[in-house]
Design goal:
The protein has 363 residues and is of the alpha/beta class. It is built from seven helices and 32 strands.
């Protein structure tokens, strides 16, 4: 089960016109990496709950045959005044709705959020779940105590049975350093415990219920890469790590024409008159004029245009972005309509108070 019905409000404006699982990493939606990972472990039946901009997920992934899996969708919304309005039923409520509709969750089910990159050993996680006789398991990652305030913290006893949860505690208040990764394993009877026809959340409602009833509910402490895209700053940081080659099995597309510089097809780059320092990816049909400077890690989306004298430093350009002459974009995410700095501050094209100038390369 991939949870993909949220609005992604914390990563606006990236999610203004796209659902969060469709945010691109190296030109691929983050959810595509999840599906590839599931397929590698033999998981072939995947349900996805959708709501906001649901058609973009459905049109891209279709029935899943390109990845050797079957994908089904459960739309969450209501009809109001003749219009269909997205209205998620909560992470747990959406699963109960699917179960009532078809009985899909009749085997142990892996539940994932659709907005994180992972390389979890799924086989080992399922083995531990079964070995402990767990009704539900939460995959956790041990984080530095100084960072616990960024996470939901799981408190478990010596055997791993979960006793309580703390939501973003201070380092002084934290009773544990085990962060919930939003990866769960549920037995069918857990789904039956979710109230039918009700908005119900996994973390804030279902889990306290399991703890209160003292059921075999366990935390798994695992060592793996878990890269959560919770905020705009996370997205910027993820791309920087990926372009530096710090994330395994994420290969930069295109052809490496110089050390650390990859290009797509049909590019127009004044190589002898530009200063380009990798790692940099230059997408197809990109034009880089003489006198431009690019300091990596940078991702230049296809169809973009960087004018003479412009400087792009440690930034991400979405497709068809034009950077005006002599402008300097430093540690930013830039699209044809808006740009965001790594802290999440947003400027929109046409804002007369902005000192930066950029636009749509197609215009």
């Amino acid at each position: 089960m991939i949870l993909a019905a949220g609005q992604g409000t914390r990563v606006r404006p990236l999610t203004k016109n796209m659902p969060k699982p469709m945010v691109p990493i190296l030109g691929k939606p983050v959810m595509e990496y999840l599906i590839e990972h599931l397929a590698n472990y033999g998981i072939k039946e995947i349900m996805v709950n959708v709501a906001y901009n649901h058609y973009k997920i459905e049109q891209y992934f279709g029935d899943g045959h390109r990845w050797g899996v079957q994908i089904g969708y459960a739309y969450e919304g209501v009809r109001e005044h003749g219009d269909v309005i997205p209205k998620p039923f909560g992470s747990a409520g959406g699963m109960r709705r699917i179960q009532d509709f078809s009985g899909f969750f009749d085997e142990p089910t892996l539940v994932l959020c659709g907005d994180a990159l992972i390389d979890l050993d799924i086989g080992a996680a399922l083995h531990e779940h079964k070995a402990k006789g767990a009704i539900a398991s939460v995959v956790t990652l041990d984080v530095p105590r100084s960072e616990v305030s960024n996470y939901g913290i799981v408190v478990a006893n010596a055997e791993g049975q979960i006793q309580s949860f703390q939501e973003k505690p201070s380092p002084e208040e934290a009773q544990s350093t085990l962060a919930s990764t939003g990866i769960y394993i549920f037995e069918p009877e857990v789904i039956e415990m979710i109230p039918a026809g009700k908005i119900y959340d996994i973390g804030s409602e279902l889990f306290p219920q399991l703890v209160a009833e003292k059921l075999p509910f366990y935390a798994q402490k695992r060592f793996f890469n878990w890269i959560d895209i919770g905020r705009v700053s996370d997205y910027w940081a993820v791309l920087q790590r990926v372009l530096r080659g710090e994330v395994a099995q994420m290969n930069i597309p295109g052809r490496e024409v110089k050390p650390g510089i990859w290009v797509g097809l049909n590019t127009s780059v004044a190589w002898d008159q530009c200063n380009i320092q990798g790692p940099v990816y230059i997408g197809s049909s990109v034009k880089i004029e003489p006198g431009a400077t690019i300091i990596g890690p940078c991702w230049i989306g296809h169809g973009s245009h960087i004018r003479s004298g412009a400087k792009v430093t440690r930034s991400i350009l979405f497709e068809y972005t034009r950077i005006a002459a002599d402008m300097h974009f430093n540690e930013m995410i830039v699209s044809p309509n808006y740009c965001v700095d790594r802290a999440g501050e947003t400027l929109y094209r046409g804002d007369e108070t902005a000192q930066l100038r950029w636009g749509d390369a197609r215009a």
